[in-house]
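new request in #modeling-help
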Amino acid sequence: MGQKAVPVPTPDTQPFWDGCAAGELRIQRCLDCDQPYFYPRPVCPACGSARVDWFTASGEATLYSYVINHRPAPGFEDEAPYAIAVVQLAEGPRMMANLIGVPNTPEDLVLDMPLRVTFTRRGDLSLPLFTPAATAPETAP
Amino acid sequence: MTGVIIAGAAETDQLGKLPDHSALQLHAEAALNAVADAGLTLKDIDGIATVSSPGPVQIAHSLGIVPRWMDGTGVGGTSFLLHVRHAAAAIMAGYASTVLITHGESGRSRVGAARFAPAPSSIQGQFEAPYGVFGATTAFTIPALRYMKDYGLTHEQLAYVAVAQRRWAAKNPRAMYRDPITVDDVLASRMVAYPFHLLECCLVTDGGGALILTSADRAGEFPKPAVHVLGTGESSETPVISQMADFTESQAFRLAGQAAFAEAGIGTGDVGHLMIYDAFAHLPIYGLEALGFVPKGEAGTFIADGNTEPGGSLPLNTNGGGLSYTHTGMYGMFAIQESVRQVRREAAAQVDGPEISVVLGNGGMFATSGVLVLGRHPR
């Protein structure tokens, strides 16, 4: 059994991972056109401005799309089949995530269901995951 | 039109499981076959294009070619369509007269190939791999459920894409899978990544192909009918699937298609044969809609009604496609090869006299696209 992939931050992404370590989902926003965006990068994708800053997103999201993967990546052998989802944050941007606190089945994973962020330990980092908004806060194994 | 023709085109002698062939051997064999197809020798070649590994320097050196123009664009499986576009521009600019474009990939046997894993500091390494993304089956497939919910595409219609293409493959002795299949067969095949079953995912094979491009004023000098490059387009959207602007359509497919159709001066009604890069069963659906052949949301029904299979109004993926013919990892070269064969009237499953064939290529996971409009006559 392999090990799950561990991200290595860059100067562009370090504030995101620092936010995760503090239990916050920090993403970027353009100071000129107000466009929020993800993944972390130095220029606003909407207007090209380099005047961008970080803010803490609400952590609320909805389920935009997913697959349920039956051929596990290294480290995921005990969890297969597991969902690889793309969630849409309340602020607009989308990001990939796993879904916990809910069976990863087509019946239980309904598109547009409300989710909220939670965090799990991965190597020396804290990794954002999402869970149905109705469930109590929990920590992934 | 571009003023350029495809004068030679060929694949490796064999496709499939070739553990005795390195990628370099596959490139070389395809190159020699294409040069022979054009009635030329390697000494006639003065331009070279191929993807970054092994790359144009290695391929040119291995074949004894001294290029005065080269292109190593490597943006996934559509790269070869972009090479055709770039080579056409180079030939018209006088930077090269006769360009060789090669592909060779030991996709199945992985001879000499490194294990694929993104760097952990890359965008993929930070924001995809930690969630158990492991190859194209786990990410390229993610948009499909959104499309299914928004446009009512059924599991049976998605499965039917594989059924329709198998009907073409049955006519092609070189296709890897030729036995007829039903929707029930597809839905009963092993689940790979819900909603995708094994038969809705492409093959993984070894093989190669190559093309020779030159100026259209040399048409008639070659053994085979010239295939005119009437129009070309390219675009890119996103390096990671989560950032597609809309999971129900490919912006890159649409923009590359619009550019190619505009350059060729054609509309969808002029197209007699079509190839759409099919790494997975949803791609022909996205491609048909992006190119404007059917309105948004109707491609699943269009295919399930039989329009794209033998006897239908719009022959699509007539070699059997990546789902049934071959898929080395960068399939675009094989889609071009089948369009060339159809325009030349030498395909295994020959369509009735297509004047114009269109090839839509995909690179990465909806990351990039190239489109070619190929014709039997100049316009």
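bot summary: Chain A has one domain: 14-132.
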